[in-house]
UniProtKB/TrEMBL annotation:
Biological role: Catalyzes the transfer of a dimethylallyl group onto the adenine at position 37 in tRNAs that read codons beginning with uridine, leading to the formation of N6-(dimethylallyl)adenosine (i(6)A).
UniProt keywords, alphabetically: ATP-binding, Magnesium, Nucleotide-binding, Transferase, tRNA processing
Cofactors (names): Mg(2+)
InterPro entries linked: Dimethylallyltransferase (IPR039657), IPT (IPR018022), P-loop_NTPase (IPR027417)
DNA repair in keyword set: no
Any Pfam family matching the protein: IPPT
Naturally occurring in which organism (per UniProt): Chryseobacterium taihuense
Binding residues for ATP: 11-18
Record-given protein name: tRNA dimethylallyltransferase
Length: 306
């Protein structure tokens, strides 16, 4: 399928990836696969900035709101499902769009995951005890000491990610970042990566304003409705953990919202660190013109014909 092309739209949270992905899907008359792991869950529309009904109507999306927060879904399952969907779409289209800011989920589609050992029951038990007695901050500290490179990009509010990485490091004696850096599979389609960039101050301002808009659109009510699922893995993420602390009486609302903004900015910084290491991303500037978009299309056609 070397005449088939996957256009992967990447960039930090709040930069406008959905808009660009839809523009590309409409131009190539194709469909979109999401690799935003938070948008898989149908109950988390507001806090994950899932595409609106209007955006979903403009181009067909896959892996948006396809799961419940009650379901467990691994990155390995996603790799299998996404590649199966790609095979199906490539029967009808020469180009398919991939979009999302979940770095490891994009990686698993474009490269594949390395064969890592299964979880060690002993390590997991020890780590769970640390989590319960010393809190997630202790796990963050352990991972930062063992593998500062991975700590830079991991969602360190998600304790399962921390447990998995530390477990693998303890089992193998090697950094987790090194073990996931080597591509396991070569894909039988071309990959064209497109990014959007903006000055750091402008990006952070967009993130702050987007959080305010989420609150206006009912994020607090969405979080309240998920109270009985607050311990599920899906909800251990920015926008939800902070508001659960407000609802539990630990924080006041203004402080919880300020923490959402701060943690969203931190996540964007980790995403920027990850993408900065890649040398195969064609960048558009935020607020790109029609001329810029035409130049992008020329680049895509050039890459697809190489």
């Amino acid at each position: 399928m070397k005449n088939k092309n996957l256009i992967s739209v990447v960039g930090p949270t709040g930069i406008g990836k959905t808009k660009l992905a839809i523009e590309l899907a409409k131009h190539f008359k194709t469909e979109i696969i999401s690799c935003d792991s938070r948008q898989f869950f149908k109950e988390m529309k507001i806090g994950t900035a899932s595409p609106s009904e209007q955006e979903l109507a403009e181009a067909k999306h896959h892996f948006i709101g396809n799961l419940s927060v009650e379901e467990y879904y691994s990155i390995g399952q996603y790799e299998t499902d996404a590649l199966r969907k790609l095979d199906e779409l490539f029967e009808k289209h020469d180009f398919v769009i991939l979009v999302g800011g979940s770095m490891m989920y994009e990686k698993t589609v474009i490269e594949g995951l390395n064969d890592l050992p299964e979880a060690s029951e002993g390590n997991q038990k020890k780590l769970q005890e640390i989590l319960q007695t010393e809190g997630i901050e202790k796990l963050q500290e352990i991972l930062k000491d063992l593998d500062p490179e991975y700590f830079e990009i991991v969602d360190f509010h998600n304790y399962r990610r921390l447990l998995r990485a530390i477990d693998i490091i303890w089992q193998t004696g090697k950094k987790y970042s090194e073990q996931i850096a080597v591509s396991q599979d070569s894909r039988n389609f071309k990959i064209i990566r497109i990014g959007i960039e903006a000055p750091r101050e402008e990006l952070y301002d967009r993130i702050n304003r987007r959080v305010d808009l989420m609150i206006e659109n009912g994020l607090l009510e969405e979080v309240k409705s998920l109270g009985k699922f607050k311990d599920s893995t899906a909800l251990k993420t920015v926008g939800y953990t902070e508001l659960f602390k407000y609802l539990d009486g630990e924080w006041d609302l203004d402080f919880a919202v300020s923490e959402i903004k701060k943690n969203s900015r931190r996540y964007a910084k980790r995403q920027l660190t990850w993408y900065r290491k890649a040398d195969n991303i064609y960048y558009l500037s935020l607020g790109y013109s029609e001329k810029d978009f035409c130049s992008l299309l020329e680049y895509i056609h050039q890459k697809s014909n190489e």
